From TrEMBL:
Family assignment from sequence similarity: Belongs to the class-III pyridoxal-phosphate-dependent aminotransferase family.
GO BP annotations, alphabetical order: glyoxylate catabolic process; L-alanine catabolic process, by transamination
Species for this entry: Mastacembelus armatus (zig-zag eel)
Enzymatic class: transferase
Main location: mitochondrion
Taxonomic superkingdom: Eukaryota
Pfam families according to UniProt: Aminotran_3
Assembly and oligomerization: Homotetramer.
InterPro entries: Aminotrans_3, Aminotrans_3_PPA_site, PyrdxlP-dep_Trfase, PyrdxlP-dep_Trfase_major, PyrdxlP-dep_Trfase_small
Alphabetized PANTHER family for the sequence: ALANINE--GLYOXYLATE AMINOTRANSFERASE 2, MITOCHONDRIAL (PTHR45688:SF3), PTHR45688
Name of the protein this chain belongs to: Alanine--glyoxylate aminotransferase 2, mitochondrial
Cofactor: pyridoxal 5'-phosphate
């Protein structure tokens, strides 16, 4: 039975065929020997499990190993497989382009590049309409740094502590996680400011973030807000609708946001020149553990950055293309329009691709010199990415992300209320983090050995998830956007069982 025939069958039929299919090839032992001997040692260092998963094939939200065992993929190759492994529509578009033209560059004018750029631009608000295509998110962020410095004439760039913006020599300066740092100079001119984390940070609580599930931490501004709200509600009955509007403004005030903005102002006052080049921020931190900020933080931060001559850059490598559910781009959930957007991962459903989108003015500054990319925007990448955009729209995947993701977070919050070691559940759509703690009072990270035990147990029961956070204390749930409610229930059962197993052993 061919792989194409398998893909057309019902899921239950595909499982049976895969299990019966002869997957014999290179032995696991031989693969691991090669990995140790011929692959860079880094590949062993990042091998996720004590008992590695030897993958053979994928279809939509499912993966099979070389023995035919099926896994529900709840990590999507680090939030990269946006519409599903080997999605039939994307596969067909890829095959069609493969027969026409594999490769050419911007030296020539070819339809796939221009068709895709026009289509991608239609998904972005004005004035974000000028696109440069790359091969990866790290490369896109490198290029964004260069563009920002050229346009502003300034050098310093600010990012959040705990952020991850890539592993290239320049992007490493943006990345603020010691595990990725080497004892050499990198990313000169990059400064990290306090991350406005309302769960683990100094301030925050149960009213701060844009998520279906709020932290159980008592809100820092609850007492004052409630008192003020009670007074204004009395005025609501006495005065006018205008006073009711003022009431809403008062209630929306967040003390945690105010404190984190003060920290940003302190960074401006102490760590960078009076004029800066840019501020980088993910709408929701990815590798950092799905960290979310107070609702109005980015809006106020953008204003402060622009007052100092800088541009605002939204890293949408993990939050873009409908993954957050409520919006197509993560920045839209913060009610801001950045000056530049970087993207990768889900843009090509796993095909190597990235992009920098900016304004005509910033793009003109970049065009003063020469920059050339051999593979960025090649015909294959553009055909794949164009099909991904069509598939997200036709299959309603953004809406599915909102529907299934909200259900997942709501149900995970119920498990948080049961288990002492589940400290926080957060996110939007299918960008979800579950932060594990030793106890809810101190919020100390669950130790690595405990995280690994739960992680391995989840894998052994047929589900693949990710890990993140500064201490590796957060489980990351970022599946292909095609998962169903039934898949969500299966994951929830496995996750519940794995936590129960750990607690029993402890």
């Amino acid at each position: 039975c061919s792989m194409s025939e398998i893909s057309l069958q019902k899921p239950s039929q595909r499982i049976a065929v895969m299990n019966a299919h002869n997957l014999a090839g290179m032995s696991k032992e031989h693969m691991m020997d090669i990995r140790r001997q011929y692959c860079n040692p880094m590949t062993m260092k990042v091998t996720y499990y004590k008992k590695p998963v030897f993958l053979h094939q994928g279809y939509m939200q499912w993966l099979w190993d070389v023995d035919g065992k099926r896994y529900l993929d709840m990590f999507a190759g680090v939030a990269t497989v946006s519409v599903g492994h080997c999605h039939p529509k994307v596969t067909a578009a890829t095959e069609q382009q493969l027969k026409k033209l594999w490769h050419t560059t911007n030296i020539y004018v070819y339809p796939p590049l221009h068709e895709y750029c026009e289509k991608l631009a239609s998904y972005l608000p004005d004035p974000l309409k000028v696109i440069y295509l790359t091969n990866s998110g790290s490369e896109a962020n490198d290029l964004a740094m260069l563009m920002a410095r050229l346009h502003t004439g300034n050098f310093d760039i600010i990012t959040f502590r705990g952020s991850y913006h890539g592993g290239s020599p320049q992007a490493l300066g943006l990345t603020s996680d010691g595990a990725y740092k080497y004892p050499i100079a990198n990313g000169l001119g990059c400064t990290n400011t306090m991350c406005p984390d309302v769960f683990r940070g100094l301030w925050g609580g149960s009213h701060c973030r844009d998520s279906p599930v709020q932290t159980i931490r008592e809100c820092s501004c609850a007492q004052g807000t409630q008192t003020h709200a009670s007074i204004v509600i009395c005025f609501l009955y006495i005065y006018t609708i205008q006073m009711a509007f003022l009431c809403l403004i008062s209630i929306d005030h967040c003390m945690a946001n105010e404190q984190y903005i003060k920290q940003l102002k302190e960074t401006f006052a102490t760590s960078v020149p009076t004029r800066i080049a840019a501020f980088f921020g993910e709408p929701i931190q990815g590798v950092g553990g799905a960290v979310q900020y107070p609702k109005n933080y980015l809006k106020e931060a953008y204003k402060l950055v622009r007052e100092r001559g800088g541009i605002c850059i939204s890293d949408e490598v993990q939050t873009g293309f409908g993954r957050t559910g409520s919006h197509f781009w993560g920045f839209q959930g913060h009610d801001v329009i950045p000056d530049m957007v970087t993207m990768a991962k889900g843009i090509g459903n796993g095909f190597p691709m990235g992009a920098v989108v900016t304004t005509p003015e910033i793009a003109a500054s970049f065009a003063k010199g020469i920059h050339f990319n051999t593979f960025g925007g090649n015909p294959m990448a553009c055909a794949v990415a164009s099909s991904v955009l069509d598939t997200i729209k036709e299959d309603g995947m953004q809406q599915n992300s909102l529907h299934v993701g909200t259900y997942l977070m709501t149900e995970l919050a119920k498990l948080r209320d049961i288990y002492e070691i589940i400290g926080d559940v957060r996110g939007k759509g299918l960008q979800i983090g579950v932060e594990m703690v030793t106890d809810k009072v101190n919020r100390d990270p669950l130790p690595p050995e405990a995280m690994s035990a739960i992680f391995e147990d989840i894998k052994d029961m047929g589900v693949l998830i990710g890990k993140g956070g500064l201490f590796g204390q957060t489980f990351r749930i970022k599946p292909p956007m095609c998962i169903t409610m039934e898949d969500a229930d299966f994951f929830l059962a496995v996750f519940n069982k794995s936590i129960y197993n750990y607690m029993e052993k402890r």
